[in-house]
Amino acid sequence: MGKRNNVTVFVFWGLSQNPVVEEVCFAVFSFFYAIILLGNLLIMLTVRVGNLFTSPMYFFLNYLSFVDICYSSVTAPKMIVDLLAKSKTISYVGCMLQLFGVHFFGCTEIFILTVMAYDRYVAICKPLHYMTIMDRNRCNNLLLGTWVCGFIHSIIQVALVVQLPFCGPNEIDHYFCDVHPVLKLACTDTYVVGVVVTANSGTIALGSFVILLISYTVILVSLRKQSAEGRRKALSTCGAHIAVVIIFFGPCTFMYMRPDTTFSEDKMVAVFYTIITPMLNPLIYTLRNAEVKNAMKKLWVKKVFWDPNGK
User: Fold this and answer.
1) How confident is the model at residue 263 (pLDDT cuts 50, 70, 90)?
2) DSSP string, 162-202
3) What percent of the chain has pLDDT over 70?
4) Quick one: how many helices (H) and strands (E) in the chain?
5) What CA–CA distance (Å, rounded) separates 166 from 6?
6) Among 179-193, 206-220, 237-251, 297-311, which stretch is predicted with the lowest mean pLDDT?
7) pTM for this one?
8) CA distance 249 to 261
9) For strand 171-172 and strand 89-91, is the pairing parallel, antiparallel, or unpaired?
10) Which run of H or of E encompasses 89?
11) Across all residues in the chain, what is the average pLDDT?
12) Is 16 helix (H, G, I), strand (E, B) or coil?
């Protein structure tokens, strides 16, 4: 049977249909997106200028910030512009690209957070072998793995949706193209596709969440053998990581660990992992981390009190 595709554009319902609420959201989310860009760029700049790349933790933190910028940029600018637009439309191709981007960068972020947990595990539980285990080659391979896994995951999601026929309704009750809301518009039975999508996304979200919880439990248990100072430093770093993991994975698991259904709360839950988490990551990692704060101080002192003679 040939695929019938009469739909060339999709229409978003957006976050709200109330113009006053939309104006407030426009101001709030424009501010949030500015913080995402500035905060994450500042971390990337600090890691580069402060020469922190030699430390695996900052090597991965740099790429986490880069992924956060890309991830939020797939949905936030369009959503912010649409808040003041009369008609909130996106082309069929644009919708598929957005769906790919959300899952590509979202899944890559999940794997980077998992790799960062592994890095903390090695640093705290095997400190004498840390630099041998987490050498530059291993770090590069782990990073490449996160991007490859993210790409495979998102290609599967898009391939499942692209082969569906869209011939009737084209209104999406969301502010970006995600799998479950788009599946509702297909004019064919999407039960099997829905199950595969849930298995694909749900396994990654829940599987990584469980691995992370086990990793941090092992780390926290092993901290009992550490000195008071070592325990305090490790708890500070791990506390930041655990906060990010809970804020990101809670909404993600709620969204993708369920059958092909949509709830009215989905849009607000999605705001958490597409905007709130990328905004909080730089704040959490810098405020809880003395090394990053010191590197930032040095960076700004250099810039503010820079001697043009090079002294």
Assistant:
1) low
2) HTS-B-S--EESSSS--HHHHHTT-SS--HHHHHHHHHHHH
3) 92
4) 11, 3
5) 6
6) 297-311
7) 0.89
8) 19
9) unpaired
10) strand 89-91
11) 86
12) coil
Sheet strand arrangement including 171-172: 89-91, 9-12, 171-172
**C-alpha span between 59 and 136 (Å, rounded):** 9
Residue 66: partners with Cβ closer than 8 Å, 6 or more residues away: 40, 44
Cα(156)–Cα(73) distance, rounded to whole angstroms? 22
Query: What pairs with residue 9 in β-bridges?
Result: 91
Non-local CB neighbours of 264 within 8 Å, separated by 6+ positions? none
What one-letter code names the amino acid at 4?
A: R
Residue type, 180: H
DSSP run (H or E) holding 11: strand 9-12
- CA angle 10–15–21, rounded 5-degree value: 135
Tokens representing 212 are: 């992370």
The token pair that represents 241 in the structure block: 């990581």
